[in-house]
Specification:
The complex is a heterodimer of chains A (320) and B (339). Chain A is of the alpha/beta class and 320 residues long. Chain A has 10 helices and 12 strands. With 339 residues, chain B is α/β, with parallel strands linked by helices. Chain B folds into 2 domains: 220 residues, P-loop containing nucleotide triphosphate hydrolases (Rossmann fold); 102 residues, no CATH class. The model of chain B has no long low-confidence stretch (mean pLDDT 91). Classes of the chains: A alpha/beta (320), B alpha/beta (339). Chain A: Keywords: ATP-binding, Nucleotide-binding, Transport.
């Protein structure tokens, strides 16, 4: 059994809602991210997947809970300690246009985490940056240019070089290939999976695209309305999801398949208002198999087979 | 033998060029395309391939001093390329409806959803306000909105993305158009909502016999709803045919590469995804021959001349613009378009 690099316990994030209420963006998240794995985090808009990624990097302050990483609780780090820890935690963003400062040279953009969090000298940084730009396939000469001179796919390579500059142990990639055309997306996905493997990185890969997640992730976690509702290995998940929502999500993905277009299992209704969630199971208002118990009792995220957990009273895959 | 339905829209040698600082950009570079009655034709391509420039030019939405449009678009006995702006206003929203990706930007934020649908009816038909409103509520119900009365009274910001897109489709259907142009209609939506909206589009096509020109970059969406597919690259159609033919027996190396680059949700997981090397042509320059040749692993001397779009090794009107011989195509297909 691989050890956990990150242990999240009872993590809760709240936002102020309308009329003085609190909206729970993350509800008591318990999650282990294992050393060296790529964990795919999936779910639809507003499910909390980006909030979770940001909370793990301490970009968002949690209301309560712990994030154990390298022997300390990230939620308690302050000042110098937190700055030093940031070298180990980096992020690749979705928007290759908005996330790079248009006025700065590529070399300066990529060097920044190295100078700030690792306290490298200018000369050390310059050398590392040249290597990184080579590594992501842009070539060291790209360092003298500015973001607008690059295409979307190239900018995403710059974002990856920057995220790797401080040699982090943990990287969050939030919809990192979603803005790219498929032919370019495939190039960037291959690059990312090579780098993760060669450098032994641990990655949280957040995406709404299940095909992309299946390609890159070792395990899959599914979120709905601020909760994790299923977590399983890639093969278990894609061969038979255990939560009715996971199943509906998979069935909704349009697939390239020969023969007549199939009738999809279309999930009815829309996401409930997070400020006013249903009693009992949060998914029951859209669940095709909801029963009385689902209205009264909120299910726990419980283990149904080794390494596989699901938050449902009536999982589609029975316990072993 | 079933007879081929009559054409609704015939595009001949359509060219759309934009004046940009670097010169004249050939966004649509000589396209021939026919849309038949009651079919869903998917126009597929990546960013900058010209698919939106093409669809906008059909209804004159990108006319302007820096746009040069030539060729012929016959629809209902007239040529939309030479039609006056006044004539086009009579066609848009009545005979041809357009649904865009971003419904929030396309809807008027100050008017209630029901009023926007009923105004669309009244813009083209002489009916009473009350009558138009009750028809609007019917249309909202038809596009799968539960509680259409309440939705009719809502302002766009009070509706979810999926609901707004349904309101757009209801507006599109208001005058029972012969042709619905849907430009990335589900791209901004989550998959479960996308599935609902695609089901609505399919039902409309089936129940009303509306022809749909679906512009999309998503090959999965194409597989779910299209009858025929046209693949665009650098302003040209490189392959065209029945859904089953183009998606499962592709003839053009670009289509093969595109299909290979999509990571699937079933089947074996590949260690590396097949890729198309290089980046799409988006600037003003075009090679004299095949536009895909600079990225094509199978390019050879004959590609220096521009290949015509015609039936070569395909069946049932399956056309392609590639000079590659048959056996080489089979090899290319088995390798996902990679040499």
């Amino acid at each position: 059994m691989t050890a956990a690099l990150i242990e999240v316990r009872g993590l809760r994030v709240e936002y102020p809602g309308r009329a003085g209420g609190r909206v729970q963006a993350l509800r008591d998240i318990d999650l282990d991210i294992l050393q060296g794995e790529t964990l795919g985090l999936v779910g639809e808009s507003g499910c909390g997947k980006s909030t979770l990624g940001r909370a793990l990097l301490r970009v968002i302050e949690p209301a309560s809970g712990r994030i154990e990483f390298l022997g300390s609780d990230l939620t308690r780090l302050r000042g110098q300690q937190l700055r030093r820890m940031r070298a180990e935690l980096q992020m690749v963003f979705q928007d290759p246009f908005g996330s790079l400062n248009p006025r700065r040279r590529i070399a300066d953009i990529v060097a920044e985490p190295l100078l700030r969090a690792r306290g490298a000298t200018r000369a050390e940084a310059a050398e590392a940056v040249a290597d990184l730009l080579d590594l992501v396939g842009l070539g060291a000469e790209a360092g003298g240019r500015r973001p607008h001179e690059f295409s979307g796919g190239q900018r995403q390579r710059i974002g990856i070089a920057r995220a790797l500059a401080s040699s982090p142990r943990f990287v969050v990639a939030d919809e990192a290939v979603s803005a790219l055309d498929v032919s370019i997306q495939a190039q960037v996905l291959n690059l990312l999976s090579d780098l993760v493997r060669d450098r032994g990185l641990t990655m949280l890969f957040i995406s709404h695209d299940l095909g992309v997640v299946r390609h890159i992730a070792d395990r899959i976690a599914v979120m709905y309305l601020g909760q994790i509702i299923e977590i399983a290995t890639r093969d278990d998940f894609f061969s038979g999801p255990a939560h009715p929502y996971s199943s509906a999500l998979l069935s909704s993905v349009p697939v390239l398949r020969a023969g007549e277009p199939r009738e999809q299992q279309v999930l009815e209704g829309e996401l409930p208002d997070p400020a006013n969630p249903p009693e009992g199971c949060l998914f029951r208002t859209r669940c095709p198999t909801a029963m009385d118990q689902c209205r009264t009792t909120r299910p726990d995220l419980h283990e149904i087979s080794p390494g596989r957990r699901v938050r449902c009273h009536l999982p589609l895959v029975s316990s072993e | 033998m079933t007879s081929t339905p009559a054409p609704v829209l015939e595009i001949r040698d359509l060219r759309v060029r934009f004046d940009v600082p670097a010169g004249r950009l050939p966004a649509v570079d000589g396209v021939d395309l026919t849309l038949r009655k009651g079919e869903v034709l998917a126009l597929v391509g990546e960013s900058g391939s010209g698919k939106s420039a093409l669809s906008m030019s059909l209804v004159g939405l990108n006319r302007g001093p820096r746009t040069h449009i030539s060729g012929e678009v016959s629809f209902g006995g007239r040529d939309l390329v030479t039609a006056s702006e006044r004539e086009l206003r009579g066609v848009r929203g009545k005979d041809i409806a357009v649904v865009f990706q971003d419904a929030l930007a396309a809807l008027n934020p100050l008017h209630r959803a029901g009023a926007q649908v009923s105004e669309m009816i009244r813009a083209h038909r002489d009916v009473e306000r009350e009558q138009a409103m009750s028809r609007a509520v019917e249309l909202l119900s038809e596009v799968g909105i539960a509680g259409p009365d309440r939705a009719a009274r809502a302002y766009p910001h009070q509706l979810s993305g999926g609901m707004r897109q349904r309101v757009m489709i209801a507006m599109g259907l208001a005058n029972d158009p012969a042709l619905l142009i849907a430009d990335e209609p589900t791209t901004a939506l989550d998959v479960t909502i996308q599935a609902q909206v695609l089901a609505v589009l399919k039902r409309i096509q089936r129940d009303h016999g509306t022809s749909v020109l679906l512009i999309t970059h998503d090959l999965g969406v194409v597989a779910e709803v299209a009858d025929r597919v046209a693949v665009m690259y650098a302003g040209r159609i490189v392959e065209q045919g029945l859904r089953e033919e183009v998606l499962f027996r592709p003839q053009h190396p670009y289509t093969m590469g595109l299909l290979g680059s999509v990571p699937p949700i079933d089947g074996p997981v590949l260690r590396r995804l097949p890729t198309i090397s290089g980046t799409p042509l988006t600037g003003v320059g075009r090679p004299p021959g095949c536009a895909f040749a600079p990225r094509c692993p199978f390019a050879h001397a004959a590609c220096a001349e521009r290949p015509a779009l015609r039936q070569r090794y395909g069946h049932d009107g399956h056309l392609d613009a590639c000079v590659l011989p048959g056996p080489a195509r089979a090899t290319a297909r088995s390798q996902g378009g990679n040499a």
